[in-house]
Here is the input.
Amino acid sequence: MISTDLNKAKSILQSDNLIAIPTETVYGLAGNAFSDEAINKIFELKKRPRFNPLIVHLKSSDDLHTIAQKIPEEAIKLAEAFWPGPLTLVLKKQSHISSLITAGKDTVAVRVPNHPLTLQLLNLIDFPLVAPSANPFGSISPTSAAHVFNYFKNELEIILDGGACERGIESTIVGFEDGVSQIYRLGSVSIEEIKQVIGNIEVFHSESNEIMSPGMLSRHYAPKTKTVLVDDVEKSINQFLNKRIGLLMFENKITNTKIIAQEVLSELGDLNESAHKLYASLHRLDHLNLDIIIAEKFPDFGLGRSINDRLLRATKP
Ligand code: TXA
Ligand code: MG
Here is the structure.
């Protein structure tokens, strides 16, 4: 049921059951981080592989030391700059953190989300929440309560309704393995913003990244409809003649009678607005029985880079 009843949400969580919560990035499928029973239910409901660890959500950075230890200076700076907000830090875990959360690793991912309803909820309860995105494994993340309902129907007693997610793509994940700061997942905080706080940082690119941060698994964030990411949309349309085509465009509409549906993410060419609208547009296109979604490549800087990352993963067969 879609609701804003925080007391009911609290009692469901206290009995080791799951709810959906709004965050500024995407909706999360949340359970008590100190309950292995709740954590197990998350993996089962999402059909998520057990090797893919979860993010712990705190009410305040004051609680960070209860979850993580040996926190590097860069992590403190980043937390001060971006929390509450869409940045996740991967840190050495405190020994009591369940290995179900961390998939057996000795690091834990943690963030303070920036959504008033969820912060209110976190202040009502006396445990943090683990919350992956509230979608079945591999599918498009939800950015509204209705998206979550479409996936899980009444399997969730409460989907807390916090409106459309302001940022629209997942948090940026930063880790510090071997003393080197690295971006494990591009997201709602741009690389440029992170560099302003801690100087140079690399994006972790390698096959082993699938083990470092399994959310970087190649196919992910994917519509059911076949999707391609292209530089030249007009040319691509001509390659799919006689197909039911939908377009996902950055700022300009294309005039072509063969197109069945078209989503323009920001007529003003604003990358923040584009990120905010990305998943809702993909959800809409995916419900139209199209043969193909042609997505236009975004400018490769700022949030454009994070959007391209998601679109690229959506195109993997
Ligand atoms: O914006 C977000 O981060 C959303 C909202 C709900 O907070 N959550 C989210 O969770 O995107 P999820 O489970 O869909 O993605 C979590 C990512 C995964 O890619 C996982 O591999 C990575 O975090 N992760 C978690 N723990 C990790 C760890 N110890 N080391 C490396 N990566 C980790
Ligand atoms: Mg996810």
